[in-house]
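Exercise: predict the fold of this chain.
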Amino acid sequence: MTLAANLGFPRMGARRELKKALEDHWAGKIGEADLLATAAALRREHFLLQKRIGLGSIPTNDFSFYDQVLDTAALVGAVPSRYGWSRPPVDLRTYFAMARGIQERGAAGGRDLPAMEMTKWFDTNYHYIVPEFEPGQSFEIASSKPIDEFLEARALGVPARPVLLGPVSFLLLGKSKDPGLRPLALLDALLPVYAEVLGRLTKAGAAWVQIDEPCLGLDLSPETHRALEKAYAALAAAAPGLRILLATYFEGLRDNLGTALRLPVAALHLDLVRAPGELDRALKETPSHLTLSLGVVDGRNIWRTDLERALSLVERAAGSLGPERVQVAPSCSLLHVPVDLALETELDDELRGWLAFAVQKIEEVVTLARAVREGRSSVKEALDASRAADAGRRASPRINDEEVKRRLAAVTPEMLRRKSPYPARRVLQVKALRLPPFPTTTIGSFPQTAEVRAARAKFRSGGIRKEEYEAYLREETGKAIRFQEEIGLDVLVHGEFERNDMVEYFGEKLEGFAFTRHGWVQSYGSRCVKPPVIFGDVSRPGPMTVEWARYAQSLTPKPLKGMLTGPSTILQWSFVRDDQPRSVTRAQIALAIRDETLDLEVAGIRAIQIDEPALREGLPLRRADWDDYLSAAVDAFRLASSGVSDQTQIHTHMCYAEFNDIMERIGAMDADVISMETSRSQMELLDGFRRYRYPNEVGPGVYDIHSPRVPSREEIERLLRKALEVLKPHQIWVNPDCGLKTRRWEEVRPALAAMVEAARALRGPAAS
């Protein structure tokens, strides 16, 4: 019988119940018992929901209080020694210290521990905590979470399949500060722990386990292929009665398919949304004992599945292998989409008819499996509705804008270049801005306090008039300007109090975008984002940021940065239309941002930051595909930024990704100043500047804004001196590693003051 399965479900809850519980716990408002109770209630709700829809295999251990990679580190006892953990289990206090850092003051001095490094999960906007391996690293079972959550589901009568991050991917995702320690060399020490976990799951009654090895979507070395073969031979031998589903996603297997098919597992999951053409080869080469799990429903986007197209793939596999050796599933975990479209009562009917969230995607999976088991006639109504929705979307006049297409066709190579090269621009910018050595600034946003959020909510609900709301925003902006002047920042920002999100804010002011009310997805920890939906051609009806930038600049003689979000980031952090190439949509957004930069310049703004934190995130997983993507992304940034005069300083910002391998392409963006996240990795990113002599100016982030801890002046100065080993003094800017929106003023004030003091300590001899 063809099985309907899921690979993972969103954790936060349809109304972000887990987010609230986590933040209340961190703030000391609720204890650990209340947090655990909220988590258990959500898991129960999600298990039973998936069972009611009709899934035959439901994931467990897909829940997390922070992220699944950190959960795996806790499971195997990979806790860095600085956290003082000594014996199982890894308690929540240690777990959250690893994720967020900890800063405790007391009579004996307290503890001051930085968080572990954080980076992007493959090519998504989801972040994970990077495992940290030390010399003499050992592993042991330090958490019963996978077994406990399997037993929870089983007690509810749920057909449960535990999910584990695979041992090879776990090691490849990790790092060591010891250059002589290769993570894969730890495999022999790690495998006995995985074997014991599988043994415990078998004793608990598990028949299947899903082991995710997303590294199979990457370019792999011969050593990694050997590691995979060793790992799965050991795991199959350790739990012979347990059937393993090996899952990979976000990319086709390509040259790794042969290795995957040879591994001693019971089933292999294929992402047929990203690589539909891979099915034919897989069907030819699949051994007779192997089941294929077909990821034909997009787990990364919110468009309805073309059921006819998906069903043709499933029927082809069932005809070749037999229906009993086929499972139907989303392409990946549904962690990356919102929970339930039924909550979106404010969307118009036409647009709602084009969309599917996690609940609806599970319904699509069940429909496809049923069509194979019982015949197409059993799901005729669903197939007809799918065809009608697809035809209606293609024919809708809301999709196409001929003026946008005309403008894009008229773009010339000259529009992608600044008028003069950087050295000539720098001379003019130094004269115009008159900044000291090691100029200080921030990335853009200041704390979005409860009061700010409440005022926005009150305005949107009609509780206060527009004039009252804007007066409040002007007051908050004025306070932010005065604070920056008082502590001595050199280039100011207006604080972005009027903005809900760095992408949503712009999407609300652009044509071709739509917005949900409950379309939240997890970004990291308790942080959720609500991506806009790009459904049509993109254009800018009018200025988006000019009024607030002009007002803030009128309050200070110091230079103020205009703050924009770049085309690749708007694209990557939205749910993007799938009916035209993403590069076309990105270029349309770039034209809109270009119009805004020109208007900011006319308004007297002398520095403009166009943030591109997601540029690296969107990089294809295979190097063979990099050139096309990077060329389009760099061209889009240059199209957005190159219309201004030489005197106007263009900044950009990037964070929480591995940039060293694309540093030359970042240089090709030709921003005058680039600020980058480097604090959690202790300036590791600077290694890229050793290999590639970046010609322009750089702001290596000197403190971690994703942690509540406040760095000292000495700590920041130490990081800046590391930067001076690689960069010239005139190249270095001093700034946090990201925006300050999620932090509290009680943390921001002392941290920025320490940052300014550190910059002043370096001025003088070092700058001469």
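Check your answer against the key: The chain is about 40% helix and 10% strand.
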